[in-house]
């Protein structure tokens, strides 16, 4: 079994990613860390606990509460006015809502902070743990700053974030990188084996409402919740950011989990030098992928996927959930 740690800002698509990982027989989820992102840390932690409890996995899967603010991006006046994020101004654009629509959690997070648990777990490991961060990279970057030796202990990082041709929060940036650009830059510069699953891939794998209804028909708990979430996301996306096929909606974070399970779910994977803009200007949080090797002095530091196998992704969700 492959050992993994999830780092989530739950988050509707995070909930689907969690269920995919937690229900995959090939994965051993050592723990789930929450982070500030789609909403403030109280919401993302509560939502993470709700999903674990909904699946009845509270005795097996510990949840660790992580960082409540980005590393530095809220310090400059006016740079991050909407963090902790409260959602879009127009309620019709609301992809997440404050809470995942599940009963309130009766379980609590572990007493240890996510960052210290991550460091401890990685340092004691045999270098056989894959990190799957699908929110802002604050926890991972903080851990790397506190204990840089974890970089040699991480087997691999498969993260959801950034975009080559696609953006979704400012005219230049994807949400996870935009919330904490410095954290994304620290992770890119860490020397770890990194696979980036950006918006270009997740949009290519957008799921149809019809396929999600097949999950409901399976009658499983995960299938029902996924169908509800896809329907909710689809209502918001149709209004806020319609996909080329308007009957589909991306469930970004689940694609990162499926990548760990089967690499073939990604298409057009390029090895390249990647960076994140931290200027505080119009490109703040923008991801840069030097696919044409304009800067010959830079060595590749990531693999990035520009596409995805939509059919395989949908098939995997239908099988696992
Ligand atoms: C990412 O931002 C969040 O809203 C989603 O959960 C996903 O991780 C997509 O840009
Ligand atoms: Ca997320």
Description:
- This protein is of the alpha/beta class and 321 residues long.
- The protein has a single domain, classed as Inosine-uridine Nucleoside N-ribohydrolase, Chain A (Alpha-Beta Complex), CATH 3.90.245.
- The protein is 37% helix and 18% strand.
- The chain has twelve helices and twelve strands.
- The longest helix is centred in the last third of the chain and has 20 residues.
- Bound molecules: beta-D-ribofuranose and calcium ion.
- Beta-D-ribofuranose binds next to helix 1, helix 6 and helix 11.
Summarize the structure.
The chain is an alpha/beta fold and 321 residues long.
Architecture (CATH level 2) name: Alpha-Beta Complex
| Main β sheet profile | 8 strands, mixed
What is the total number of structural domains? 1
Unreliable stretches (pLDDT < 50, length at least 5) are none
User: Regarding CATH, which class?
Assistant: Alpha Beta
What ligands does this structure carry? beta-D-ribofuranose, calcium ion
Number of helices: 12
Record the strand order, biggest sheet. 3-2-1-4-5-6-12-9
Mean pLDDT: 96
* Proportion of helical residues: 25-40%
- N-to-C SSE string, H for helix and E for strand: EHEHEHEHHEHHEHEHHEHEEEEH
Structure class = alpha/beta
> What characteristic shape results from the CA principal axes?
globular
Distance between the termini: 18 Å
Query: What is the radius of gyration?
Result: 18 Å
CATH topology: Inosine-uridine Nucleoside N-ribohydrolase, Chain A
